[in-house]
Design a protein that fits this description.
single chain; ABC transporter involved in vitamin B12 uptake, BtuC; 72% helix; 1% strand; globular
Length: 404
């Protein structure tokens, strides 16, 4: 019987690794999607500077612009926390005024020391946020309805606690100093330089680790941009600040809050669970994540951030005001969306509020310097916001079609 011998199996060469690189869609889906937003910010700044006789990028105007942006940025950071869950909070602007008023009342009428008045204002924000979160999470009422009703109720409470006045003047110099003080040079320069160095080291370390594990990495030019653009922006801002009075304390506090929540969202289990719930709440629940608890906590944190914004606002204006800005909430949400946070939940970064706020505030400031009317500012901001929402929707649709 003839035995058939199978031909020897030749070892096939390994399939070539897929080309490293990112498609346009995946480029915008990552945190590095803030790169084009940063580029747009630079172009906008250069345009306004060229058309206002170098006034836009002057040290004095930059100082005014960043301090003016602090309240919107802090409320926007609170909005980001809620948006990442796929929810929305329409009461944040009213909560800011309410908690600022609580701080002022306790300082002026009850003679609380400044630090205790601030802590009381923050605690008031935590309480109202937890109440919102309980109604949303446990009673399953849509957050849009809950926070819309809450904004009306808190507005009434604000008027009630300030009655018969509509404003209350701050007398404590420490509370006024939050907005009026500047960091010493060794802190104003040293802290940002250290932060940028740590960020650059983290980007490089992450890239090297992924290469060692055989994982895909972005092109080298994209890594260089992700480091170079922050370095350029921080260097320009520091140079301008130091040419005036230095780094404002309130700006440093806001940047510190953003950095803190970025670390929480990116490097903790709590943060990963927030993204998971925003991506798919039911799957997160089946995976063992306490969805209701996290919703309550996030709404509480968002309102506490709004309270911090109210404290900044009261310090800057040296009073508590019963009149809530009609554009504060819209600008805060717009800043988050323009910066790359998805309205559908599960995607975005705490740093998104920086770029978004600077674009919103920069547009207003630049148009003011060009003597643009309020009508023009609203129309331009509306166009920018609708473009950001359209891009967000397209990215979401592309991601869903790709099965991500």
């Amino acid at each position: 019987m003839k035995t058939t011998v199978a031909p020897p199996q030749t070892e096939q060469p390994p399939a070539p690794a897929p080309a490293q690189g990112l498609s346009v869609g995946s480029f915008f889906r990552q945190d590095l999607g803030q790169i084009p937003v940063a580029a747009a910010l630079i172009v906008m700044a250069l345009y306004f500077n060229a058309t206002t006789d170098n006034l836009f990028l002057s040290s004095r105007n930059l100082n005014f612009l960043t301090i003016q942006s602090c309240v919107v940025a802090t409320v926007g950071l609170g909005a980001i926390m809620v948006l990442l869950l796929g929810e929305i909070d329409l009461s944040l602007a009213v909560v800011a005024n309410l908690c600022g008023a609580v701080m002022c009342l306790l300082s002026v009428n009850a003679h609380f020391p400044w630090w205790l008045a601030i802590l009381s204002g923050l605690f008031a924000g935590l309480v109202v946020g937890v109440i919102n979160g309980i109604v949303v999470a446990l009673l399953r009422v849509p957050s849009f309805i809950v926070t819309l009703a809450a904004s009306l109720g808190y507005q009434g409470l604000l008027l009630h606690i300030l009655y018969p006045n509509t404003t209350l003047i701050i007398t404590d110099p420490n509370l006024k100093g939050i907005a009026a003080s500047y960091l010493p040079d060794y802190l104003g320069i040293g802290l940002p330089v250290l932060a940028v160095a740590v960020y650059a080291g983290y980007i490089i370390f992450t890239r090297v680790q992924r290469q060692r594990m055989g994982l895909s990495v972005p092109p080298i030019w994209q890594t260089a941009l992700s480091i170079g653009l922050p370095v350029l922006l921080v260097g320009l801002v520091l140079w301008q600040f130091e040419n005036y009075l230095g780094v404002p304390l309130m700006v440093a506090l806001v940047v510190g809050l953003i950095a803190l929540f970025w670390v929480i969202l990116r490097f903790t289990t709590f943060g990963r669970h927030i993204y998971a719930i925003g991506g798919n709440a039911e799957a997160s629940r089946r995976a063992g994540i306490n969805v209701n608890y996290l919703r309550i906590v996030v709404f509480g944190l968002a309102s506490m951030l709004a309270a911090a914004a109210g404290i900044f606002q009261s310090s800057r204006s040296a009073d508590a005001d019963a009149a809530v800005s009609p554009t504060l909430l819209l600008q805060a949400i717009a800043a988050a969306v323009i910066g790359g946070v998805s309205l559908f939940g599960g995607r975005g970064s705490a740093w998104a509020v920086v770029m978004g706020t600077l674009i919103i505030a920069g547009l207003e400031n630049g148009l003011d310097l060009k003597s643009g009317g309020t009508d023009t500012k609203f129309m331009v901001e509306g166009v920018v916001l609708i473009l950001a929402v359209i891009i967000d929707a397209l990215i979401r649709r592309r991601s869903t079609a790709a099965g991500r």
